[in-house]
Amino acid sequence: MIYNKYNCIRKFLLALILCLVALPVSRFISPRAIVDGSTLFLVWLPLNVTLAIIFLFGRHGIIPLIISFAVLNEYTFHLPHTEAAVLLFCELFPVFAVCTIVRWRLGARWRHCMPNSDIAVRVAWIGFVAPCGIKASMYIAATWFNYPIKISNFFGSGTIIFSIIDIQSLICAALIFTMIVYYLLRMIINPRFARKFWYRNRQPFLSAKKRLFMLGWLGALVAAVTILCAPFKSDYIAGYLVPIIFILFTMGISWLSYSFITLSWSVSAFMLLAYNNNFLQGVNSDYSLAFVMSVLISFTICMLYMMQVFRRSEWLKRRWKLQAMSDPLTGLPNLRALEKQMEQQPNGVVCCLHMKNMEFLSKHFGLMMCVHVKRSVARKLQPLLQGGERFFQLPGGELLLWLNGPETEARLQHMTDFLNSRRILWNNVGLEIEFGASWGVLHMCGEALHQMLGQLSWLAEKASAGHQVLALTNSLQAVAGQTTNRVLQLNKVKRALDENGIQLYGQPVVDAQGKGYQEILTRLISNGEIMMPDQFISVITQFNLGTRFDMLVVERLLQWMQQHPHTSKYARFSVNLMPLTLMQKAFASQFLALFEHYAIAPQTVIIEITEEQAFSNSEVSILNILQLRQAGFKIAIDDFGTGYANFERLKRLQADIIKIDGCFVRDILQDQQDVMIVKAICELAKANSFTVVAEYVENEAQRELLLEAGVDYLQGYLFGKPQPLTDGE
């Protein structure tokens, strides 16, 4: 409370001192002219002092202004108390009223961001309404009070042209000279502002691009103003140099700062009006003077709006450039920004941070989950970064990190361990994401840069499996070979799918009597070369070709079944679906349409899906499985017991068949624990009316033990290896 009181007193005294000094000085130096035999202000600078004090001190400047104007009027005019009070009212009340309206229009911070913010409101109210309000109040006061002859013309007793020029002088003052008075008073109050103002406005002179223009522009302006203000007269000077001054300021708008332009124009206009022998050369009538004043007012308004438009365009340009250099969702810099960074720092260390399972999780939880994870990673690691180090956005489950400091590998390993030790939450669900990283020194741009980023990406993906950090410099040849082979494999797979190079194989799945169906296994044929599943499955998964692959396999199977009809209503084949296939909204309808097209009964084909799909929380996957079951398909859960499955989930499983994974079958003769697991699964499956299939059965002893444990169907090399589908099943 005491501090606030002291602060108010300090502001009051400071404003009072400034007013008592600035008002007489401003009135004394205000340019004048003789109109109708009377002295007339071309610019009434006390109005600028009034506005500047209000801009600087706000409401704390009102009383100092009243006191200072009262003292100045008393010293200058010696009016009776009533006339003095009315004159004081006419000088200040319109300004106070206009400032109140502007504050109401613009808000409490109306005195900030001047003069470049809300230019229309400021020009209209402060530049026109306030001056017109002053003159209107003086004209009204003249109807009741008589003022001395030396100031009566200001109260409307003069000619019309005198009144017009009088109003123009106030408008000129408000529009042209307010900011220079504001800057000068603010520099007096706060010398630090003077230094900041100087450093900000000297930048164009220090810039190599702008220095020559700045020196030429300033030299031309000083020369033109000096000649126009010279004591000798010439009929040609004003006609040629005044337009040049207007041209110079128009050119300077795109090169100079807002404050420098307004200051330069204020100084130039003051010099032209104060020393007006050449500037007003040929102005032989009051009407010509009114026209010249109108030109100054019009050019000032045009210049203010041109500066506003230019600043707006520059702001938009910077904003568009920033948007072009950043990802709109994550807000992180993109590859274009990385290329820009490399131009500034050619030899930089780039790290690729890979997030394993990100692509699957983004399919499951949606795109915004991926965005949330990347934002979280950048936020968590930001305290570990040094100056100039930052993240860059990459598509998919990767981020780039630009590092400057030493011990890159150790720092990156610490970051990776930090991320792997914490879980990122999405809608209160912990995400299972594993992090790995790779790094390398970049010396290249263009196509070579993107190739190297691809190598870093491959290396980071390998590193994520073991939470490692791998250096590209130590394995460049191997990585280059691996990435090249990956691209070749992708081309082979695409060619096989484009040419429908799909070869179907069948492996028997039989019961105790040797009857059953066949599981469809697939080989791809590309340029006559047979590709095994271990060669193409990972490529299909990585590059999201799973749905296309599954639909081609199913269609090839249906074509075969149509060519080889069977009267049995029981299942003849089972077919596997890739993990992401069931996540496609239109999959079930497309799948059923194929069976309808080839006239194949759904009961003849079993659909095998993974535990990941069966226990997924994806509404699309659940809906697709429900539609397929309602259509008559049996659903089998492949590799049961190794991933998402547990006994609680088995109770609510929407399926018909479970296939026990081979890891429980291979050593079942030696491992009693495997026997117990298989028996437990079979007992719970029977309770829920599930059919049980055991994989990887390779000898008779395994067969007997599994049948005894309650397994319904068996599959493995004991009953036959996968064989191509031929004319006979």
From TrEMBL:
Residues 486-729 form the EAL domain. It is found in: Cell membrane. Pfam families: EAL, MASE1. GO terms for cellular component: plasma membrane. The chain crosses the membrane at residues 84-102, 123-147, 159-185, 212-230, 236-253, 258-275, 287-310. It is a multi-pass membrane protein. Keywords: Cell membrane, Membrane, Transmembrane, Transmembrane helix. InterPro entries: Cyclic-di-GMP_PDE-like, EAL_dom, EAL_sf, GGDEF_dom, MASE1, Nucleotide_cyclase, Rev_trsase/Diguanyl_cyclase. GO terms for molecular function: cyclic-guanylate-specific phosphodiesterase activity. PANTHER family: CYCLIC DI-GMP PHOSPHODIESTERASE PDEA-RELATED (PTHR33121:SF74), CYCLIC DI-GMP PHOSPHODIESTERASE PDEF (PTHR33121). This is EAL domain, c-di-GMP-specific phosphodiesterase class I (Or its enzymatically inactive variant). The lineage of its organism: Bacteria, Pseudomonadati, Pseudomonadota, Gammaproteobacteria, Enterobacterales.
